[in-house]
Each structure stands twice: as C-alpha cells, then as structure tokens.
Amino acid sequence: MKIIVVGGFLGSGKTTALVRLGTYYSSIGKSVGIIVNEVGEIGIDGDIISQYGLETKEITSGCICCSLKTSLRATLLLMIENYNPDVIIIESTGVAYPGAIRDEVMLMNLPMDYDMAPLLTLFDGSRFKQILKEIKNFAAQQLAQAEVIAVSKTDLVEASMLPIIETAVSQINPKAEIITLSSKNPESLAQLINILERSSDTEARLAELKKVVANDGSLLMAGGKKDNSIEASGVGSFSAEYVLDDTRLKSLNESDFEKIVKEIMSQIRESVLQKSPDFLGHIKLFLESGSALYKISLTTAEEDPIYDFIPPADENAAAAPNLKILSAVTGISSGDIKEIVQNSVENVLNENKIIFSA
Ligand SMILES: Nc1nc2c(ncn2[C@@H]2O[C@H](COP(=O)(O)OP(=O)(O)OP(=O)(O)O)[C@@H](O)[C@H]2O)c(=O)[nH]1
Ligand SMILES: [Mg+2]
Where is the CobW/HypB/UreG nucleotide-binding domain (predicted)? Predict the structure, then answer.
C-alpha cells in the first residue's frame, strides 16, 4: 500500500491534482482510496471526487494536522479494513501543515506495511505575488517539510515568471525537489506520478521526530511549541448546506442555474472585497439541482470565478436538490464571512423564489 499526502494553501489545486492521480491509478488497475479533510463542517471536495467514481471519505470541522488526528487514524483504518486500497491519497485542508500530517501518519504505527510517498505540497504559481503579500510566513511553514513542491496552475503563469517563482520557492525550502504542474498539461502529471513512485525519507524523519514528540505523544511544531495551523493562517471560514425545495427548481433550466450560482458568488465577492481587498483563499459552491451539478470557485480578489457545469453521470440517479458552500479567506473573521455568505445565498434564493431550509 502506498500513502500519498498532498498539501498546499486553499485553492492551490489539490483536489484537481488528486482526482487526476486517482483516475490514473484506477486506469492501471490499482484501487484508490482518498481521504479529504475540509476545515468547515460541510465538505465539498468529497462530492467532487465521488463524481469521478473514486472511493472517498471526508473528515470535516477542523484540521487533521492539529485537532483531528484521531479522526485521521480511525478513517485510515476503516478505509483499509473496508476497501484495502493499493493507494491512499490524503488531501489536507488548505490551512494545514502537510508535514505534520505525514509525521502523524508515520507515528500512528499502522498495523500493516505501507510505503510513504515523498511529501507533496502544491504552491499556486498563478497567485505567487498575492501569496507573498498576504500569507508569506504561513506559506513558508506549509512548504517547510515538503520533499516535492509542485508549482501549480502553470498554464496561468507567464513563462518569464516561472524561474522567478521556482527560485523563491527553493529559497524557502532548498532541500525540496521542485516540479511544475498544470491540469491542462498531461506531461506534468506523468512527471508527478514518476516522483510519487519514490519513497519518503521516513527513517531520517522519524529520527528527527523523536526530538520533537511531546510527553503526550503529540507533535511539537517548529520552535518546540504546539501550533494551531488554522489560527496561524489568519483565515476566516464558514460552510453551510441548504436543502432546496424542488417544486420551483423543475421550472428552471441550465442557464437559470448558471445565473444563480454566478450571482451568489458575485455578491459574496463584492462584500468580502470591502472587508479584505486582497483576499486569498477558496470560496467554493456546489449546487445539485436534482438533474445536474453546478460548481463555482474563486481563489483571489482579482480573478473571475471559475464556473463548471457537470451533467448527471446517470440520468436516473436524481439526487436531492441542495446547495453547499464553503468559504475560507484571509483578512476576514469567521463571523463576518458567515454573515456575508448567509446573506448572499439567502438573497439570491429568495429573489429566484426558491424555497430552502438551512
Ligand atoms: N487553470 C488552472 N486551474 C486550475 C488548475 N488546478 C486547479 N485549478 C482550478 O483552481 C480552483 C481550485 O482548485 P482545487 O483543486 O479545488 O483546489 P484545492 O487546493 O483542492 O482547494 P481547497 O481544497 O479548497 O483548499 C478550481 O476552480 C480548479 O478548477 C490548473 O492546473 N490550471
Ligand atoms: Mg480541495
């Protein structure tokens, strides 16, 4: 069994990359299990990963690198018992320290042989300047123990910027191997797959860890103190799920739903901009109309949201209509983002005469 830990800041492309990895492993006959951790109570990535027919389990309401270590162990053991995958991929939250997750897995004494892949951390090349401006120290902490750093979304990066980004990243972590990754470039996936065939240097890391394990068996972070990555990130977050009444939905078509999700995102963006003009993070919304899925995602103040329509995999498999939203952004309190998200979603649903319950 191979275990792959994927980290990187909010919206850096982790789920996109691991869906491609998972699909590749499935295509060569390997069974794959994906564990995805989301900071909010409501998870969205698990739904997206399931859409691709991949086996997935979600851990929500916090970070597996700090408060949810026992959940991670229980979920890993359950996945192995029920499914025994050849490859397990663990996606950390965007506000986790991925190194701490790899360390925790190694310290779990899992009751089976496994091979830990080199610790992979994504660094979003398309948001390089914003990351340095808004979350430089936190991003550096995330990259600190990476063995492989993938500069992601390179299709959005100007060619002349790439060497500058690579130099900056290697200054933060000179030991890591640096590669590039783009969902638009199959060759970059092939390179990543090759690198993940290798093993993490777990022996060296375990020797180091002996020096930093507290009396209660938990890990101490840099400087010997316990650290809470969610607090350190300065990110405010809120997630919610709304059940939608399908009476009205039946009279709406694809372009109506597209307008609805775009309007919700636009209202949230406008309000967040007023409180946090340079925000960085991930606001993701997933609307299940009962016959199709509508997805919209925003990761910086400047960009336009990315909209996706996903037709139903099986015409007969009508799901209960619902709307899930997860917002985690810098420079705003969790209370403020909660108010903004609730107001925006509820306004737009009311305007469109859609009855909902939260
Ligand atoms: N252009 C481009 N967009 C990408 C690429 N990878 C991811 N994206 C987009 O970036 C957004 C965030 O991607 P995700 O894969 O959800 O990022 P994530 O790191 O899993 O996000 P969180 O789990 O919320 O932290 C989505 O809208 C993706 O479609 C890429 O290589 N190129
Ligand atoms: Mg994700």
Answer: 3-179
Range of the domain at 346: 235-357
Residue to substitute in 6, 15, 16, 56 for testing ligand 1 pocket (most ligand atoms within 8 angstroms of CB): 16
- Ligand 1 atom nearest to CA at 122: 19
Q: Among 177, 199, 232, where does a domain finish?
A: 232
pLDDT one-digit tens code per residue, 118-177: 999 999 999 999 999 999 999 999 999 899 999 999 999 999 999 999 999 999 999 999
Say yes or no: 32 and 178 in one domain.
Answer: yes
Among residues of the chain, what percentage have pLDDT more than 90? 77
Helices 186-196 and 14-27 pack at an angle, to 10 degrees, of 80
The domain that holds 300 is classified in CATH as 3.30.300
Closest Cα to residue 20, out of 166, 188, 139, 134? 188
Report which ligand 1 atom has the smallest distance to the Cα of 295. 27
Per the structure, the count of domains in the chain is 2
> Half-sphere exposure of residue 105, counting CA atoms within 13 Å on the CB side?
29
pLDDT per position as a tens digit, 8-51: 999 999 999 999 999 999 999 999 999 999 988 999 999 999 98
